[in-house]
Amino acid sequence: MSDKSNEQQQLALYISSAQNCDYLSDKQSRNVFIAPDAEVSPEVYAQLISLGFRRSGRHIYRPHCETCRRCISTRIDVNKFKASRSQKRILTKNKALTFKPISADFSEQHYQLYLRYQAHKHPGGSMQQFERSEYRTFLCESLGNSAIFETRLDDKLLAVSVTDLFALSMSAVYTFFDPEFASLSLGTYSVLQQIRYAQAHHKQHLYLGYYVRDSQKMNYKSNFRPLEMLIENRWLSFEKASDLPVSSGSVASAETF
User: Fold this and answer.
1) What is the pLDDT of residues 228-242, one digit of tens each?
2) CATH 3.40.630.30 domain locations along the chain
3) 8 A C-beta contact, residue 96 and residue 252
4) What is the pLDDT of residue 46?
5) Which residues of the chain, if any, have pLDDT below 70?
6) pTM, to two decimals
7) CATH number of 85-200: 3.90.1150.10, 3.40.50.620, 3.40.190.290, 3.40.630.30?
8) Helix, strand, or coil here: 215?
């Protein structure tokens, strides 16, 4: 992997051992990843995202499974996005809410909201047990140019969205919200507001991470259309949910970075 915008930079890739897949219970997964101590600038990371990589804290990875290509990188061209009727209703229903960026620093209020969200959404999961140091590593450490968007009703914190900001794009890293306000569809609301923010700040794309059709927790991304997906190392646009592919390509296809 090289960045030719300024000076050439070589980044070594490593392959993880197989482990149980987080999205498909009958599958094993592996990732290719970049050494966590590698110096990766925001500009280089923006290139990596366009090649299908994601980050968790400062850990940059991409699925690399021998017999499966079900994880598909997704993004929205914010200038072509068309809100559905249900999404417009969500924005109308939540017009009393505020959605504002702040610096991506640790907040005890955010951390306590995160714990309530995990206990409700993923009970018994490893992320429910995160200590403050693990939370910091996961959501407060980044490769630079990150922001936290707070959703509030008056002074009450309802949701937090961690987002990476680049010259021409944004990347939605993670969103969590108050389970008592789940009826407000705060996950969808947060994506819609990030699209609005990207439009207002002259970005072209909002990256949403991986789509896995048979994973309920990843399937919501199919509601944002047209949806661009990285298929056989090319970004293709899909207007209809029924047309969305199941995999990013054949397992026999060569993967390039």
Assistant:
1) 999 999 999 999 999
2) 85-200
3) no
4) 96
5) 1-9, 124-126, 128, 257
6) 0.93
7) 3.40.630.30
8) coil
